[in-house]
Amino acid sequence: MITRQFLQSAVDARNAVRELLQTIFAAELLAPSRCLWLVSPWLRDIPVLDNTTGSFLLTRGSQVVITTRPDPGNAQVYDSLRGIGPDDSLIFHERAELHAKGIVGDAYALIGSMNLTYNGLDRLTEMLIFNTDRPAVESLRLSFRREYGGRA
After folding, report:
1. Which carries the bigger pLDDT value, residue 152 or residue 15?
2. Residue 12 domain boundaries
3. pLDDT for position 89
4. Residue 91 near residue 58, CB atoms below 8 Å
């Protein structure tokens, strides 16, 4: 079990969070989660891994559930992914009152205050917790599934 906390305000923490995101998405490439939830009120195409073709997750059997607030910039990320994989591989929700933030896969959860944007990743002070405790992650997966849909 790994639990790691980040207070992202210094350059070292920003690099650590960027490296953690790279590790998460590289792990998804090697062993895709049944369902991957990306929940962020604001979502932009931030550089983590070069996924120009979108094939990292959507064509490898994973279902990706994206939940954001209604905003044209958020919809652009979804539009860039739509049609890449099977019809059920991508679910997109917009919630006007969304404030929750997290990336949850089969074996990990990254939760905290950071939106998946340039400001969240590179400018603002953010608090994040990365957890691989299986019971805690499974509990969060079930909560995300109830709230946002997706595979169990």
Report:
1. 15
2. 3-147
3. 81
4. no
